[in-house]
Each structure stands twice: as structure tokens, then as C-alpha cells.
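Deviation from plan, reported transparently: flavin mononucleotide complex.
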Amino acid sequence: MTASDPTAFTSQLRNLRQTRRFSDRAVPDDVLNELLEVARWSGSSKNTQPWHFIVVTNSELRKQIAEAGPFAGFLESAPVVIVLVMAGSNPRSEPYDEGRVSERLMLAADAHGLGAGTGWFAPDDGGERRVKELLGVPDGMVIRSALGVGYPDATDPRPRGVSGGRKPLSEIVSRERYGG
Ligand SMILES: Cc1cc2nc3c(=O)[nH]c(=O)nc-3n(C[C@H](O)[C@H](O)[C@H](O)COP(=O)(O)O)c2cc1C
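Because the crystal trials were delayed, the predicted structure below was used instead.
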């Protein structure tokens, strides 16, 4: 796709949005597996691959996970929740690696007609601890986020384009020197 029509690909990148409303339609196993392969092949700092992915489909568990984040309630309606468990070995590079793999999962989901969205858990309000308890994740590992994946609810327009708003390039890009 990138070689024959690069703007089709960059357009997909520009329009990717967070999905928060999902239909009940199940995610086929082969599609889920393809997403997990994309995650597996994501690059990471020094190729440490500091991640483990817990795929949660059980509805009660999804509900409990959704309740652990202040803005993660939407995860309950996602038929698949992928919890990103990070190794906890490098606090500087691992959040970067987590962002990379999250975005790739979102793009892969989009390519298959699925939507995906990040839900966040923080240590200070006990959200991270709660999710670790629920899923039996050892101390020392880190859970910051989970990705809800599913077919978007047909009544959800899945906002695209500029409706969410973005800063103009003139505000976020400098040439040669900061502010230049
Ligand atoms: C680190 C991070 C944490 C996020 N946490 C949440 C969250 O807990 N709940 C949520 O609804 N969206 C969450 N989001 C999604 C952002 O709110 C969303 O990407 C942003 O508002 C842009 O909206 P858009 O994706 O519709 O363009 C998170 C995104 C990132 C990158």
C-alpha cells in the first residue's frame, strides 16, 4: 500500500482516532492473531521486547478492568481487551516502547475494519495494583494501559479528521533551532 499509494497510507495515519464504543460482534481469532503478530514484531529499545500481552475476553473481567482506570470505562464494551504488561526494567525507554506497540496495534486494527482505544491506569489511585491483582501479574512489572479492540458501534461516527482538533504545525515545528 505504501509503495503504490503513499498518501492512502498517510491519510490512514492522519485519520486514526481512538474508538470508545464497540458493537457486540466478536473479533475473529485469525484477525486477533494477526494483531498480536504485529505487536510481536514492533521495534523496541535495544530489541528488549519488554512486553507481555494479556488478552481478556471474559466480560466480568473486562468490567473490572474498565473500573480500574478513571477514564477506562469504555473498555467494558470492547469484546477484546489487550492489557499491556511491561517488564519494569527501564522506566525511560519502556513507556516509549509501549506507545509504539499501542499505536501499531491501533493501526493494525484499523486496517482490519476494527477500532481500538487506550485506557489508562495510574499507580497513585490503585488502578494499576487492581489490574495486576485481577490478572495475576507479578510485582515489579508495570501496567499503564490496556487497549480495547472491537468493531466500532455503528451508531458511533468514530470521529475522524480534525474534529478532535490539533495544534497547527506552526505551533509545534521549528526549523534549525527551537522556536525558529
Ligand atoms: C497515554 C495515553 C493514555 C490515554 N488514556 C485514555 C483513557 O484512559 N481513556 C480514554 O478514553 N482515552 C485515552 N487516551 C486517548 C486520548 O484521549 C486520545 O488519543 C486523544 O484525546 C486524541 O483523540 P483522538 O484519538 O480521537 O484523536 C489515551 C491516549 C494516550 C496516548
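The first strand starts at residue 51 and ends at 56. We consider this an acceptable substitute for the interim report.
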